[in-house]
């Protein structure tokens, strides 16, 4: 049914295009000068049918489920839900739906079977109503679009305005979704801070969120001091950046200025491919290769090291970030005008001096931007840390110890049995909120740096 | 007429600073410069003129080995500065470029302060021991660039904030700060307005007192105004090289005459 609605819409759109184009062509054939080209008349008609009806279909599909549910609930016998909590009533609705879907378990109550039949009927009505609505609105819009065709009608401007609106919608969609995410986080975070004091979360040094969910479970009391968790993230990110920034910058400088042309054209694509490796693959590398190697090496010099270390996770994360930083820095260096290179070389600067004193300062805003984006990625990286760093929150800055990170804790808190009135689950949202704020501020800071130190060289 | 007076001005014949023999330049397959022989005199302004793509800038860039920085560019032949082969293995292009300064078509100040722009060359070559030495070099260079009075109160401001003509004079000051013996100028006025052009041309005439100046220019009037010797390039060949006055009043070659009268180019 949905498919036929879409096909109907497609047909109406094409019809609108050709009808209006034909009408415009016949006006021109009559010897009148048209304001817009015939194809713009067609395009305007097609868009003015397509866009509103498509939006209507999407809205209908979103709202349909809850509308049908509402009718279903209204049709149930009075007093069905008396004395039931929300979970139990949802269970009844789910059972009716599964009966309607043909999955019958045991012998359901007769009123449930009746309700299931009603549900099927409602769904059928909804489907037909949608097709009918699509047909009617498409016809009305077709008629409207056809009536606009005229020598004076500014079809090009009108069509462009519709396209402009579509582009604006696409450009702002991501922003609105982000705002939605923030709201979702905010509500849960507020709930969490109603249970756990803000100061304890922010300054507490013990993180043990494993509190009992059911009465009969045995677990610790629960402590929600986020400091060790954030400390873990900071340690791992620091290790990662200590690896990624020098190596990334050096490789960018080498590739940009010193590498022979053939080597550059071979190495650059490989680096860019590295940027596309899934992080879980890096995680394997960290846990199977790097961590044992670190442990073995430490054993040979007589140091005992945990099997999961911040060093292993951080250094592999650093490798992951190298292509990121080097390609940013390379782009920034390449953007420095050739005339500045020539100017420095003509003064008798060596290539190294030119790079250090002229190109690098001129490229610093781009480079800083790249590094700070890498910081954001390091903080938000999850998979490598889950696999290689460990789960226990320790109050330590020793990179050879097992630490955990904010993202890891969020993952572990939300896996398995969860209940949304429990501080254990809610703390994940508080952590997520903090992480979001941290990366937000880093990005704002990055933008400010770039603006402040941008050197205008043209 | 002012211009004519300058054309008629007799070129002082002094020592030869640069001698070039059988210079050929290839960009990949393209033969850009064909067997060029030139003697460039000291304390003289030598102009290279010719239509676009005739190789005059390419030849200029041979003189301080800037073509080395282009991968596909290959230079053959013998170029001597004071008798020393500049392409010899013993010559460091970095040292050479300190001796032979260069000013480019588009003003290209570094995105640094005016002071640092001028101080950059002396700094990398270790010409100043103390801050006072450096201050002196900077002031002297800016005075030679005829821009000191305009910038002396804002030496710490970025060189990129100056006007186009000021930027170009700053670049000239930057080039003379390393105490070069020869100054190469690649169409130094083509991005400037007429007033800034006049200032730079006046400056070039003053620079002749101390340096050998080689200037590439599109404008024949400019060559006539500022130079004592003129070389006419056409399709990679050096067609004619003589005193500026003779080139413009009585050229030997038919192509030169066609060019300066506007029939070709």
Describe the structure.
The complex is a heterodimer of chains A (458) and B (265). Chain A is mainly α and 458 residues long. Chain A has 2 domains: 2-186, no CATH class; 208-453, MetI-like (MetI-like fold, Orthogonal Bundle), CATH 1.10.3720. Chain A has 15 helices and 2 strands. Chain A is flat. The mean pLDDT of chain A is 86. With 265 residues, chain B is of the alpha/beta class. A 6-stranded mixed sheet of chain B has the order 6-7-8-3-9-10, with helices on both faces. In chain B, strands 2-1-4-5 form a 4-stranded antiparallel sheet, with helices on one face. The longest helix of chain B has 14 residues, at 131-144. Chain B starts with a helix and ends in a 5-residue tail after the last helix. Mean pLDDT of chain B is 87; it is low at 4-13. Chain A binds chain B through residues 261, 337, 339-350, 353, 357-358, 361-362, 455-457, and chain B through 64, 66, 69, 71, 94-98, 101-102, 104, 106, 108-112, 120-121, 124-125, 158, 160, 171, 174-175, 178.
Briefly say what this structure is:
The complex is a heterodimer of chains A (458) and B (265). Helix content of chain A is 75%, strand content 1%.
Secondary-structure element order of chain B, N to C: HEEEHEEHEHHHHEHEHEEHH
User: Taking Cα atoms only, what radius of gyration of chain B do you get, to the nearest Å?
Assistant: 18 Å
Distance between the termini of chain A: 60 Å
State mean pLDDT of chain A (0 to 100 scale): 86
Rg from Cα of chain A? 31 Å
> CATH H level of the largest domain in chain A: which superfamily?
MetI-like
Q: Name the structural class of chain A.
A: mainly alpha
């Amino acid at each position: 049914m949905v498919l036929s609605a879409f096909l109907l819409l497609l047909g109406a759109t094409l019809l609108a295009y050709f009808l209006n184009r034909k009408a415009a062509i016949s006006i021109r054939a009559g010897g009148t000068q048209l304001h817009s080209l015939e194809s713009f008349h067609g395009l305007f008609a097609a868009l003015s049918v397509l866009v509103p009806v498509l939006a209507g279909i999407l809205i209908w599909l979103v709202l349909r489920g809850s509308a049908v549910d509402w009718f279903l609930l209204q049709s149930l016998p009075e007093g069905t839900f008396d004395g039931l909590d929300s979970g139990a009533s949802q269970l009844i609705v789910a059972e009716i739906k599964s009966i309607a879907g043909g999955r019958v378990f045991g012998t359901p109550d007769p009123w449930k079977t009746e309700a299931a039949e009603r549900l099927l009927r409602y769904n059928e009505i909804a489907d037909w109503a949608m097709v009918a609505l699509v047909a009617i609105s498409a016809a009305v819009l077709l008629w409207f679009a056809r009536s606009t065709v005229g020598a004076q009608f500014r079809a090009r401007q009108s069509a462009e305005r519709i396209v402009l609106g579509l582009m604006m919608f696409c450009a702002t969609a991501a922003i609105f979704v982000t705002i939605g995410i923030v709201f979702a986080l905010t509500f849960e975070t507020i709930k969490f801070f109603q249970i756990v004091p803000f100061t304890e979360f922010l300054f507490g040094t013990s993180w043990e969120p494993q509190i009992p969910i059911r009465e009969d479970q045995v677990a610790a009391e629960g402590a929600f001091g986020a400091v060790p968790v954030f400390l873990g993230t900071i340690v791992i990110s620091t290790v990662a950046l200590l690896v990624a920034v020098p190596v990334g910058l050096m490789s960018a400088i080498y590739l940009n200025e010193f590498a022979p042309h053939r080597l550059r054209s071979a190495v650059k694509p490989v680096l860019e491919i590295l940027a596309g490796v899934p992080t879980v693959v890096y995680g394997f590398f960290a846990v199977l290769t790097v961590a044992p190697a670190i442990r073995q090496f430490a054993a040979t010099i007589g140091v005992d090291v945990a099997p999961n270390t911040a060093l292993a996770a951080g250094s592999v994360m650093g490798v992951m970030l190298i292509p990121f930083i080097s390609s940013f820095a390379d782009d920034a260096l390449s953007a420095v005008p050739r005339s500045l290179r020539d100017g420095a070389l003509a003064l008798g600067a060596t290539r190294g001096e030119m790079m250090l004193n002229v190109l690098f300062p001129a490229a610093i805003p781009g480079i800083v931007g790249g590094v700070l984006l890498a910081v954001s990625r390091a903080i938000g990286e999850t998979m490598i840390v889950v696999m290689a760093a460990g789960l226990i929150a320790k109050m330590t800055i020793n990179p050879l110890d097992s630490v955990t990170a904010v993202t890891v804790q969020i993952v572990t808190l939300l896996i398995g049995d969860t209940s949304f009135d429990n501080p254990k689950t809610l703390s994940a949202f508080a952590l997520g909120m903090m992480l979001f704020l941290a990366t937000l501020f880093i990005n704002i800071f990055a933008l400010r740096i770039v603006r402040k130190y941008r050197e205008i060289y043209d | 007429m002012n211009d004519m007076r300058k054309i008629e001005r007799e070129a002082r014949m002094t020592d030869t600073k640069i001698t070039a023999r059988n210079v050929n330049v290839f960009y990949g397959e393209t033969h850009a410069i064909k067997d060029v022989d030139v003697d460039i005199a000291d304390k003289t302004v030598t102009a290279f003129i010719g239509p676009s793509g005739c190789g005059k800038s390419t030849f200029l860039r041979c003189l301080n080995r800037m073509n080395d920085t282009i991968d596909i560019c290959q230079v053959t032949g013998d170029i001597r500065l004071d008798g020393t082969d500049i392409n010899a293995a013993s010559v460091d292009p970095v040292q050479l470029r300190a001796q032979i300064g260069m000013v480019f078509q588009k003003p290209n100040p570094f995105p640094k302060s005016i002071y640092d722009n001028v101080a950059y060359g002396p700094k990398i070559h270790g010409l100043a021991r103390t801050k006072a030495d450096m201050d002196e070099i900077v002031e002297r260079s800016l005075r030679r660039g005829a821009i000191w009075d305009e910038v002396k109160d804002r030496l710490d401001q970025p060189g990129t904030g100056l006007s186009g003509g000021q930027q170009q004079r700053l670049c000239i000051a930057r080039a003379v700060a390393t105490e070069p013996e020869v100054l190469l100028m690649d169409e130094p006025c083509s991005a400037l307005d007429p007033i800034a052009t006049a200032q730079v041309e006046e400056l070039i005439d003053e620079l002749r007192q101390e340096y050998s100046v080689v200037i590439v220019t599109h404008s024949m009037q400019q060559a006539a105004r500022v130079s004592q010797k003129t070389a006419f390039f056409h399709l990679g060949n050096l067609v004619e090289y003589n005193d500026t006055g003779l080139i413009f009043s009585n050229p030997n070659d038919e192509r030169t005459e066609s060019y300066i009268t506007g029939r070709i180019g």
